[in-house]
Amino acid sequence: MTLATETSKALKATELLWDPDRIPPFPAIALKALNLMSGTDTSLLELCNLIRSDVAFSTEVLKIANSPLVAFSKNVTSVLQAAMLLGFQRMRSVVITLGLKAYLEGSFTPLIHSCWQHSVACATIAERSAKWRFMDKDFAYTAGILHDIGRMALATVMPEAYARVIERGAEQPRDVLQSERELCGIDHCEAGRSLMTAWNLPETFLAITACHHDAEAHTSGTASLVPPSCELADSLGFAVIRCRSGRSYAEILAAFPEPGRNRFPADAKELASEIANEIQSIESA
What we know:
The chain is mostly helical. It has a domain at about 5-20 and about 105-285: Hypothetical protein af1432 (Orthogonal Bundle). The chain is built from 16 helices and no strands. The chain has helices at about 5-15, 30-35, 45-50, 55-65, 80-85, 90-105, 110-130, 135-145, 150-155, 160-170, 175-185, 190-200, 205-210, 225-235, 250-255, 270-285.
């Protein structure tokens, strides 16, 4: 089968499938937490009341608060106690992570699981880098969690077409976008922007989902940590599609601003192990 035939068949099968209004909505609690970043005046108590209204979410928050990921010295027995101990910003990150986990629950195929692990790895790296630079580490984590939401959506609604994208592979990250456009009719950055718009999320998240592979986007501030964090996550073994000519761990670290680049472990395996443990803690909660 020629590439043209393969592309034509894939597009005929998928061209009518991408519609953000047909994608299941992100959990309302997580959307509420995300919209706090747009300047809405919402208190910690209001967020707690929102969480407590959902039994499943309340349970998940308590599991996280009592997990090795947080490691409090005493048992946490209520959402309000968890919120007081975690703090408003950290609580928001926990809610968003659990929201993504819940969003993917019904379609946790090996491919979706790979997307999930990549997003958590990117979020963890971005959070660490932001903390060392006295930036908003919770925003960095949230940006990392959401940056590849478009890929997750494509892999969910077009699993066969996206399997072809995986099989084709890529030399560079931007080659993946071209394959997605040819085989799915839209790339994951465009799909991410489409979802952020449909879910009425703050403008800053549109830029992060749409531009994390665009070298000319020139994102600034905390958002600028997402592209190198995404690339570093790939190099550590958390890639959805491994590029054949990717940069080394040391080369990617050099792209991080000081003082963050010198705070990461010199051994890539050490950082990969730390991130794997964090992913496991979240998944087992």
